[in-house]
Amino acid sequence: MLTLAVAAFSLGTFAQKADAASEPHYVITTDGTYPPFDFANQDNQYVGIDQDILKAIAKAEGFTYTLKPMSFNAATQSVSSDQADGVIAGMSITPERKAVFDFGTPYYRSGIAWAVAKGSKIKSLEDLRGKTVAIKTGTSGADYALSIQKKYGFKVTYFNDSETLYRDVINGNSVATFGDLPVLLYSIKNGTELKVMNAKNPYQAGEYGFAVKKGSNAALLAAFNRGFAKIKADGTYQKIIDKYLNASASEFTGNQNSTWNILKANRAAFLDGLKETIILTVIGIILAGLWGLILGVMGVSQWRLFRWISSTIIYTFRGLPMMVLAFFIYIGLPGVIGAKIPALIAGIVTLVLNEGAYIGAFVRGGFESVDYGQMEAARSLGLSHNKAMRKVIMPQGIKLVIPSFVNQLIITLKDTSILSAIGIVELTQTGTLIVSRNSQGFRVWALVAMVYLIVITVLTWFSNWIGKRTQA
C-alpha cells in the first residue's frame, strides 16, 4: 500500500517537474509558530520576516516553492531526510548545524534572552537553582539553556511550540524560558505577560540562515544568496524587517480580543482544519477497516503461518506510539526507499497501520467469540472450514464488532491530532497556529475543544444507534 502510494506520488512529481522545467520548484519547510519570523495571519496565509524574505527572493530569482509548516525539529529533519529542499525558520547558524546543513548568506543577527512571568520574584540566573525552566526543542535558546544548566542547577521541560511554552511560564509551572530576543520582545509587545531580563545584553549573539541538506540543492542555495543580495541592495529587506518589528500583531490578525471575534476572524481556518480532520478520519478508518478485517481473518485462519503474521503485525503496530510511527514513515522511510512521501500520505498510512491493528484485534476477537459449536455443526453438514467461516462464523462475528468499529472511528478522529507533528494542518494544528499569532490560548483551545466535542457527540449518537440496530 505504501509502495503504491509513493510510486503514484513520484510519477506525479516527475510530471509536474517536467511541465515546470523552465521554472524551478522547491519544497521549503518552516516553523509556523514563530512570530515575527513565521506565523499565519487572519487569512491563514503564512507571513513574517522569513516568509516575506523568501517570497521576495523567489520573485527576484524566478523560482516557485511549496511551503510546509511544521514543528521546528520536524522541519529540519524533513530537509536532512530529503523530504524537503530547504528550511527557513529563524534557524541560528551553529557549528553543529553546519555539519548537517549548508547555509546561505546570514539574513538576520540576533541573540539569546531569558524571560520570566510578570511579577516573578526571579531576579538573576542564580535564582533558577532547583527550579524548572521551559525551553523549545531544537532551538538556540534551548542549546544555551542546556549549556548553563549545570552551572545554575535548574531543571528543564521541553515544548514544541512557543505559545504553550510561554503559557507554562505564565501559569507558574516553570519559572523562566530562554529564546531569541526579537521573538520574545514581539510576543511581549503583543500581550504575552512575560518580561525579558537581559534585553540590552543578549547572550551568544548569532545569525539566522536559510539551509539546505549538506551537499545538496546547490542551485537553490545559490539562488537564495543572489536574491538576498538583490533585495538588500534595493531596500526590500529593510522594509520587511521594519514592517514586522515595528508592527503590532493586530495588523496581521485583526481584532481577536473576544471569543466571537476569534471565531469570526478565523472561521475559514477552523473550517479548513475540520475538513482536513474529517478527510483523514474517513479515509483512515475505511482503509484501516479493510486492513483490520484482513488481519482478523488471518488471525482465525487454519494455517498457523497466517495466524502468526496477523498476531505479529497487530502486536507491533499496537505497541508503537503513533507519533513515533508517523515520524518513521514521514522522515525515516524516505531515506530508505529514496522517494519523498507527502505528509498527507504519511498521515493516512500511519492511521491505517495503527488503527488497523486495533481493528484487527477486535475483529479476530469477534470471530473467536462465536460459539465453536456452530463451526462443528457447519462441518458436520459437509461445509469446508473456509466455507463455514464465510457463511456461518464471519457474519455473526462482524455483527458483534460493529459497535466497536464505530467507537474506533471516534478514536481515529481524536488520533488525527497527533499528525500535526509532521505538518498536517488539521484541527489541532489550526488551533496552535491561531494561538501563536494572537496569544489567546484559553479562548482558542475552548473553541477547538467545542468543535471536537460536537463532532464526537454526533459520532457517539451514531455509535449508540448502530449498536441498538445490530442487537435488535
TrEMBL record:
Q: Which residues form the signal peptide?
A: 1-20
Q: Which InterPro entries match?
A: AA_ABC_transptr_permease_3TM, ArtM/GltK/GlnP/TcyL/YhdX-like, Iontro_rcpt_C, MetI-like, MetI-like_sf, Solute-binding_3/MltF_N
Name all ABC transmembrane type-1 domain ranges. Answer: 274-463
Q: Which domain of life is it from?
A: Bacteria
Subcellular localization is given as: Cell membrane
Going by the UniProt record, its keywords in alphabetical order are: Cell membrane, Membrane, Signal, Transmembrane, Transmembrane helix, Transport
User: What does the record say about its membrane topology?
Assistant: Multi-pass membrane protein
What SMART domains does this protein's entry cite? PBPb, PBPe
Q: Name the principal localization, coarsely classed.
A: membrane
Positions of transmembrane segments: 278-300, 312-331, 343-363, 444-466
Family assignment from sequence similarity: Belongs to the binding-protein-dependent transport system permease family.
**The name this protein goes by in its record:** Periplasmic component/domain (HisJ)
Please report the organism this UniProt entry assigns to the protein. Answer: Eupransor demetentiae
